[in-house]
Amino acid sequence: MGHLVGKDIYQKLGKKIDGSTIRTPMNKQLYAILKELYSHEEAELIVKMPYSLASFGRIQRETGIEKTKLERLLKSLCVKGLVMDIKAKNKFLYIISPLAVGIFEYTMMRTGQGLNTKKWAHLFHEYMQMPGGFYDANFGNNEKISIMRTMPHEETILPSEFVEILDYEKATEMVEKSKKFSVGICSCRHEKMHIGEKHCDVPLETCSSFGSSAEYLIRNNFAREISKSEMLDNLAISKEHNLVLNADNVKNNASFICQCCSCCCNLLLGVSKHGYPNTIVTSTYIAEVDEDKCNGCGKCAKVCPVNVIEMKPESNPEIKSKKTPCGWRVS
Predict the structure, then answer these.
(1) What whole-number distance in Å separates Cα of residue 32 and Cα of residue 49?
(2) What is the DSSP letter of 102?
(3) What is the DSSP string of 298-328?
């Protein structure tokens, strides 16, 4: 990495992004991504911007950039998803996008003419797959917190007079509490499609967002606005395709639900392919075997999105099935 000299603006940009909510280790792959996505002027602006939400006036004071030029740069960065503009009390606040959820997702959600989508997909894929890189930086020390958490499919939870599923574990409750909805292209499936590793028949347009996040995506053409009923229909698709519901890891004001497949989702692949069981926070509702109903068919092992179920020969003669699911590889 001798070409990354000390005063290189893209090296400074990488360091700035690495200081955000997701660790983003610098290497030649990240350097190539940054140089592809950011102009020199845009990189300089990001380096000077504060990490927290900031008004236009504050950004102008801290960067010293002339008003018209700053307006142009911020608009360009927001359209590319490299800066997020959040409307609060009738004015916009701006914040730099981390690698995830942010730069990767919004870049791969972009549609239209003249986009280097296939090149971007290969760049991100190469960066994410580097041994000892992104996954290790964020999950290599047994971190307990991740940016996303898994939600149960509500109808799979056994009824109980003692336990009631909490609102923040209900996808339908998140929908009911929201007023603005959007759906866009799944960034992970879009990436895998362009590198030839999308092995599922799941449609691309499943990425669901709510509230201010939906407003941001709609305003910058990353997603289209849909109705509440369409949002509920979109969630129903997840059950049909055996998808995992993953939401942002908060209890209140959740902003998105990803509908993830095992072949494309980078966080699920963090578990199944790269061996980091903590890339996603599990639901408080954990699947278990109903021994009275299990016939050893192996369907659960086939559909498990992180490949942790194994079918093993049953040695107990009192159990009718020849094989039973066991051998959880991760906890």
Answers:
(1) 22
(2) I
(3) -HHHHH-TT---EEEE---TTS--SEEEE--
CATH number, span 1-97 = 1.10.10.10
Which DSSP category does 283 fall into? P
* Positions of CATH 1.10.10.10 in the chain: 1-97
Tell me the per-residue pLDDT of 164-204, one tens digit each, with 9 for 90 and over: 545 446 777 888 888 899 999 999 999 999 999 999 999 89
Polymer length of the chain: 331
Please report, for residues 42, 253, 309, 310, the alpha-carbon distance to residue 288 in angstroms, rounded to integers and kept in the order given.
50, 30, 11, 13
Rounded to 5°, the CA angle 81-75-55 comes to: 95
Q: What is the pLDDT of residues 235-267, one digit of tens each?
A: 888 888 888 888 887 777 778 888 888 899 998
**Full-model pTM:** 0.83
Residue with tokens 């362009």: 194
Task: State the helix-helix crossing angle for 28-37 and 9-18, rounded to 10 degrees.
Answer: 100
Q: Which amino acid is it at 206?
A: T
Residue that has been written with the tokens 């939600």 in this structure: 151
Q: Which residues contact 152 (CB under 8 A, 6 or more apart)?
A: 165, 169, 245, 283, 285
What does the alpha-carbon distance between residue 172 and residue 26 come to, in Å, rounded to a whole number? 39
d(C-alpha 110, C-alpha 116), whole Å: 10
The Cα–Cα gap between 285 and 306 comes to 16
Rounded CA-CA distance 328/284 in Å is 17
List of long-range contacts for 66-75, beta carbons under 8 Å, 24+ apart: 70/45, 73/41, 73/42, 73/45, 74/45
